[in-house]
Predict the structure.
Amino acid sequence: MELHIDEKRLLKIFQDNNRDEFNLNELEKFMPKEKILRVSLWLKGKNLVETEEKVKKIIKLIKEEEFPERKIANYLKQHNIKEIEIKNLKDILPKEEINAALGAIKRKGIARIEKGKIIFDNLDYKDVEEQLLQKIKENKYLDDFSEEEKKIIDILKKRGYVDFDEEKEIKIKLTEKGKEFIKNPIEIEEEITQLTRDIIISGKWKKAYIRPYDVKVPTKPIYPAKVHPLTRIIREVKEILLAMGFKEVKSPIVETEFWNFDMLFEPQDHPAREMQDTFFLKYPNEGDIPEDLLSKVKEVHERCWKYKFDENVSRRLILRTHTTASSIRYLASLSDEEKNKPHKVFCIDRVFRNEAIDYKHLPEFYQCEGIIMDDNVNFNNLIGVLKEFLNRLGFEKVRFRPAYFPFTEPSLEAEVYLEGKGWLEILGAGIFRPEVLEPIGIEKPVLAWGIGFSRLAMLRYGLTDIRDLHKNDLDWLKRV
Amino acid sequence: MPTINVKKADLERLVNMPLEDEFIEEKFPMMGVEVEGIFEEDGEKIIQFSINPNRPDYLSAEGLARGFRGIIGIETGLKKYDIESSDVKLYVENVETRPYIAMALVKGVIVDDYVLESIINLQEKLHWVMGRDRKKVAIGIHDADKVKPPFYYKEVSGDGIKFVPLNSDEEMTPREILEKHEKGIKYAHLIKDDKFPIILDSEGDVLSMPPIINGELTRVTTETRNLLIDVTGTDKYAVEKTLNIIVTALAERKYGKIHAVEVIKDNQSTIYPNLKEDVLETTSEYINKVLGANLTPGTIINYLRRCRLDAQFVDNKIKVFIPAYRVDIFGEIDIAEEVAIAYGYNKFSGEYPIIGTIGELNQLEKKCDFIREIMVGFGFYEVINLMLSNDEVLFKKMRIEDNNYIEVLKPASIEHRIVRKSILPLLMETLRINKHKELPQKIFEIGDCVVIDENAETKSRVVKKIAGVIVDNETNFNEIKSYVEGLLRELKIEYELDNFEHPSFIKGRCAKILKDGKIIGYFGEIHPEVITNFELEFPVVGFELEIE
């Protein structure tokens, strides 16, 4: 028969003490109570011990104060008198105890009450109730008291000094089988809680008991260090675009209005250029522009928008408001030879908008811009590319609707369908207007689209407040 | 993006058919008009539309209904607006600050509550979209029966005339209006040199003082039947187009008739409005090439007519007639978009183009991603802060004095006005935000910083940096040195170290990283004053390194 080490320990107590039975409380000096109960349950299952439960009525002490009548006697003794008027008891006892005292004095006959006075013959009277309280302190089991004593205990209960309760007395006894078992020696191995090098190389583990664990007990969670969730989205998008044959490009964060707006055919008096939307720089505030390109752009603006173009506006420095500036800079940098080839490029970077900060808006956020330039690309191809891109991002249902951007025509916005949310706008796109491409000498069509990452991040991570992305709460960064 | 609220009942009246909410939500986006919502107000159903800024002709219920009747095919082609002659004249003097004015009449309009509301809203929206908040274009709409032609447009001085402005019962001079009237206060910046444009009638009564305010005399009410429209501005084209948008919208109303006004300046006469359509030429080959479609000329023409244009097929070319209220059609590409809209964006099959190009990552970005892997391997969490910060965090709390940074003119908030040139301070701020979280905390950030560079075309330069910090019960120089050297080793950078006196660090426990004699970074134990400035209570070590 295989026994747990604690089972052996418990049986050894019976063996060493040469006894067949113990009360539970007697065993508690050898082993914690909870362990005794658990182990004896195991041994009971193996028919080596049996347990016997007896419910015993016990007397519980509730109040350990002097009786109020004794307080009166002590008061009189201190003052070397033997009587007191009832009306003066309020100086000795609280109001609620006075009646109790008077009742007790009459019942016990320890003093005479005559003409409004209490007269003690003997201030050192013997009190049966007091004696019984003392006895209860030594033995709380109700059955050990005589019938006469039980009556007095009832009085004590009424007076609020004691109460009745029940206590289970558990006795653990060896069965016949158990008695036979302990006739043989019981060997207890050493217990191991932590495997160490010494234990391993010495071979102690061969004779030792390695304590088992509860495999379901919760342990402290560990989180890997990780990149920011925004970085994970950026990586995912880059992977898709690389697979689609796109090359990554970069451009300045501080831009002139020339590259950010003028080159993109946005009129200089367009509302988007007002203070409300764009971060203008206090210092520095003016940049350099390629002069030959400037004159071409000016000519296009004045011809189409029919207004007076201001070159000083073009030189103003701002924080770029979109990544389209990257695309247009790239196209402008192409040599004549390079213009003959197809191009697919993308830029993922931060852009800035002067918007009040709230749960939906931040003054800066990540945007991705992509363009495709080739001889015969068209609007239908643009829709094809966007469907492919969005499908790869995990959006199955995609639809398109007309939109407006100053630098593209036709223009569209793409929406994706989300279960429980409906259709959600996700990106804007179009074909660069001829007026955008004319100054840089490009005659092929150029498809273009841009997507903001804030919305992607909110969808992907279930955020309801965009500010959470940059709050950098480490608990969130660990779990997300 | 401007929005307008339209009463559903008014829209149905103008379209001349009942409209289900679902139909509205489905069809208007197809023509490029977003339905922001449909809701009830005072027991009446309201539709909120978002209008693209290139379609000011959609800024009214009348214009929307006209477009909608076309897109769903119940009334297509160019809308013909008859212009009746009148003997009304406007004499224009030289008004330097707002030299252009156009004027017209629309008579017979039944101005019920819907129409009155629509007029007021259209005026307000056009002030922004066409008028750049009245600077470029300002509009006056008047009860024509309250004044007597001919009319005069001239300049007066600040106390050169008196009249009761709209929404007032007190006669004021122009200067007093700028000081006391709500609109005067708001638009005072548009008046220069005490010269006030003014429009008067033959009896010397004031119609309006552009671009500030109309006179109370000609206030439009539901009793008005004949409307006089004035448009003034700094841009002739914008002034004329704005007038066209307004008169054609009003002519959509029952019984509304446009009447011409003769505008005379320097003995030269111009008749307004000029609703002559523009003409453009394109080909079906061009349209199909742009769209990737295979449409016949006849089909293309039908689609254009749904967009309320007209077109003819002549000599293998498509001649397109564009209504005078459109401001968004410059060339062939715009015609292609009209065809695509009428065809239906979601009918395009979406053919993926087969174009042979090679995907490639930016080399510096690749390096940054490699660094991310190293730092995560070291057990650091990546954080991403905003680039816009403030001098308290970037300099003061770091015990740094620096005046050479890029600042925005009008920040979104006081905390976001300086473009960062260093990342380390933002990591200290991140530690502050997490000061009640479990230790140790190890965080890093890789990102762009911007420094001033007078030699660059944008007078600035982007510098890519990485910074990292550790806060722990016990941490010191040795720990951060091991991490920094581990990073430099993985990056195969040949470096030297030397003592560095950086005010944010403890003196004698800070080192600079030199490469080819140039400082590319630094690391060490953060100064306890900096630690307490960021409300922290444990030792902090950190580093910053330029990436190139």
